[in-house]
Amino acid sequence: MQRSDLDKWSERLTRRLAGRVSRRSMLSRFGALLVAAPLFPLLPVQRARAAEPAQGTDFSRAAQTHDDTACNYWRYCGIDGNLCSCCGGSVHSCPPGSQPSPTSWIGSCINPDDQRAYLIAYRDCCGANECNKCSCLNTDHAMPIYRPQANNHIIWCFGTNSFEYHCSMAVLVGLAE
Amino acid sequence: MKRIAYRTGIAAGAALVLLVGAGLAMPAWGAALTPPTHTPPVLQSEMAGVTAFNGLTAHDLSYSAMDGLEGGGVRIINGDTLQDVATVYSSQYANFAWAPDDRTLYISETYWTLGNRGKREDVLSIYGGPTLANEGEIALPGRLISDPKTHTFALSPDGHYGYVYSFQPAPAVSVIDLHARKVLTSVEVPGCGLVFPFGKRGFASLCADGSLAVADVDPQGHYTVRRTKRFFDVMHDPVMDESVADEHSGRALFITYDGWVHPVHLADNPRFGKPWSIEEAAGMSPATSHVGQITWRPGGQVPFAYEPSRHRLFVLMHEGPAWSFEKPGRQIWVLDTRTHRLLDRWAVPESAYLVAVTQDTHPLLFALSHQWLWVMNAESGAVGRATQIVAPGLVRVRGE
């Protein structure tokens, strides 16, 4: 079989290493590497990376954090529908007369106050007639319907008594980092 | 008409009273009451009926207003006159398709026994006959309830089979024999969605990993589903739900958020063509998903219309950042799908969410904004009539 240049180079390197380093030495170094591995995330390099702000999006550049009845409220980066905050509910509670769905699609939005990305559950309130107030259509990283876990066109009323869509919430799940 | 006859009766009665009161002693009065012989006859009565439906014409547009506010309903409008032709009842979030006879309408829809609750019934309703009347239903095992999406329901090219995309509880496609009016099977398409028919009985679905699921059937009616290679990057530039396909030829154009067109010939073994960029066809740099890049991009609710016979692709375009794929278009770009060249850029009077083109020799182009329907010449782009409409969700024309 014809050997490639890479094969020949690898063989030379291995033979040279074997000639200079003992087997015991190799094992001891490998063992030390294994023991030290859990400490790597604590090193300053990792902490510095964790403190880096999330990369902004076109939505987050114009987002605000004080008015949850406006479409540019930071959590609404992927919302499609009526804001429950305008319908008698809030950003995380359904208006009376409607029922929160236990299912949702998950997006990730950047809070402009700390520039960090948070997971948001877009949860529909169901059972009452459509609220028809504060209708928003934001599509930041929203996916097509064949990727349903990130799609805002599906009526997310699975698990409730009714599929009648009323409004949408944007419930904070946690940091996305 | 009954009101007119009633008034005539009152007048005749009053005249009779006057005559009796006068003792019938004045012949000149009697002569004056004699009606002239040349007066046209007054319509006295008629029967109410239903105007005959002669089938969807080449220039008819059928559309639905399918969201929670407008309710449902499939409306047909004549593109030449902008007169209403018919309206057929549907539930909210329904989808519909015309049989190849252009007279039979199938509506995929969902009802609950108590309106917003109770027992759920997913059905394929059938309308047809001389007055587009209801002709029964086929019970479905489930269907996806979502904002209107063209490819959640489709027919085989010969109209023998119907395909309903379901999400109850897992992604599947129900195959219905429309001649026998029964569901044949449900084909699971895990990780995939929507339905693009091809051939006599095959269909394809788009998948969440950037591939296609291809379902073909053996002579015994058993479906086999296979995955193709990944042909697009779903995380950075997904293919749009409203991509277009000509089920008669199997030519599909899967178009991404950034305007890359992936030509695919749908078949048991699909053939993938080289992708091309709508923006590059216009002499511009391709759109990307980079933050801050404001450029021309496809967008809207139904942003593409395909005319296979002339190899024309009509695209609603807007200027915007990445992920603005639902923003309405203020221009329609006309592209040649063979040469990948931009042929025209036409302004629409009002930013449009939906576009459709008729499939005849003198095609009309429809552009639909939130409340207006504009009719354009599909060869010159000249804007013709407009009419106010109920906000639509889906559009279909004859021969699609």
Structure notes:
The complex is a heterodimer of chains A (177) and B (400). With 177 residues, chain A is of the alpha+beta class. Chain A has four helices and six strands. Chain A has two domains: 5-50, no CATH class; 58-175, Methylamine/Aralkylamine dehydrogenase light chain (Electron Transport Ethylamine Dehydrogenase). Chain A has helices at residues 5-20, 23-36, 44-50, 58-61, and strands at 80-82, 99-100, 105-111, 116-126, 135-137, 165-175. In chain A, strands 2, 3, 4 and 6 form a four-stranded antiparallel beta sheet that branches. With 400 residues, chain B is mainly β. Chain B contains three helices and 30 strands. In chain B, strands 16, 17, 18, 19 and 20 form a five-stranded antiparallel beta sheet that branches. In chain B, strands 21, 22, 23, 24 and 25 form a five-stranded antiparallel beta sheet that branches. Chain B is globular. The A-B interface holds A 55-59, 61, 80, 127, 129-130, 132, 137, 139-148, 151, 153-155, 157, 161-165 and B 67-69, 93, 110, 112, 116-117, 120, 144-147, 149, 152, 167, 171, 192-194, 205-208, 234, 238-241, 291-292, 321-326.
Short description:
The complex is a heterodimer of chains A (177) and B (400). Chain A has 177 residues and is α+β, with helices and mostly antiparallel strands.
